[in-house]
Amino acid sequence: ELQEKYGFHNIVGKSKKMREIYGLIEKIAVTDSTVLISGESGTGKEIAARAIHHQSSRRSHRFIPINLSAIPEDLIETELFGYVKGNQENAERDKKGKLMLADGGTIFLDEICDMSLKIQEKLFRVIEEQQFEPLGSNEPIPVDIRIISATNKAIQQYINRGKFREDLFLKLNVIPLTIPPLRERKEDIPLFIDYFLEYFSIQDGKKTKKMSKEAMEAFLNCSQ
Asked: Comparing C-alpha atoms, which of 222, 148, 215, 155 is closest to residue 183?
């Protein structure tokens, strides 16, 4: 498979830094601790989270990703916790939140710095109590999930400004994992190029192409 040829569980790279990451993922996967993945946009934080899930004992259950920066603030609560019929306008049936859908498996919370303090408080209680209440309900629902979160921001600055709860950070950051940007592992650039050329040739049913030496050098010399 392509992932075996070019990397690890759809993560492309065979540099020393990435081999260290693969080793960490394998060690992390056998635990059930929360993980906080840090790294710039485009470094593959969700792919790393999926790799952890698929190496873990929870692999037969769901991996539920939720990008908190892509959801309007007033909808995040219902997306995470769901609601009971009649709680929301025109709601004729219960809505299962992402926490319920991830029961037994893993929930991936991307861009956690975009959570409001209200949602942070509720998430802290979920981790503490291993249960939650859907909106409009007073009946707690037990939930068994592993939380993997991610951010591309300097979360300590948010904590210092009072925009992120330090107690929640400590709960989420039991195991930290940092994914390095491609510019710090340039030896993986030719691997990425070959991977995508082969991937799209397979998708299109065409013969695999090769990049010219000059074009390859231009990629390797790019400072961004």
From this structure: 222
